[in-house]
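Hi support team,

I submitted a single chain yesterday and got back a structure, but I'm not sure I'm reading the token output correctly. Could someone confirm the output below corresponds to the sequence I sent? I've pasted both exactly as they appear in my results page.

Thanks,
R.
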Amino acid sequence: MSWKEIWRRKAQPGAIAAGLLELIALDGFDTGLGRIEPRAWTVMVMGAAARLHLKLHERVCEIGCGAGAFLVPLYQAGFSHLWGLDYSPAHVTHCRRAIPGGNFVAAEAAHVPFSAGFFDVEICNSVFQYFTTLEYADRVVQEIARTTRDNGRTLILDVNDADKRDEFEARRHAVLSPGEYDRLYQNASHLFYEREWWYSNADRWGMSVEISDQAVEGYGNAEYRYNVLLCKRS
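Hi R., thanks for writing in. Yes, this is the structure output for that exact sequence:
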């Protein structure tokens, strides 16, 4: 089963998510190593906002917004200039319900339907591992660079660390019953990134790069992942 099929089945547009817990589940953070509780989730989101020095008047876009779980704490904190896109129309439906007045579209991450320099800030949370190739990931970053204003910031969270791939795969196998891992992920592998990949492409993207370890309370995947802060040069 491909990732697109997994996400299509995950979201049921006829059902209305009652709160952040349900939105987190719709976005896939509800089982195994991927579980994050609402309190830790909110701390993660607001920590990201602080690292981005996010201001209330700024235009914020989440690439791969899913059902809106990441944006909801921002919305509740008074950030109202929120955009998002996701390739799952059902998830976008949930996002629109969760954040009235937001601007959400069903679109591919490599084809952002907004003009150059439109956003002050862009965010990708736990999305880059689902891309099929590094070439596609490169196209996504180029789109981020195009649609972010000069001196704008982008935070890419939860990137699979290539140096920890074997350890991560072994841990994922261990938390599932025999055969369950292959049944679930036979055609839905993860993409892993060398940290050097970001630095080696930074000049071509016209962006500076800062990398930090992922750290979310109770989140089993955190020890195998890192975060990337990109700042577009003027």
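A quick pointer for reading it: The first strand starts at residue 60 and ends at 63. Let us know if anything else looks off.

Best,
Support desk
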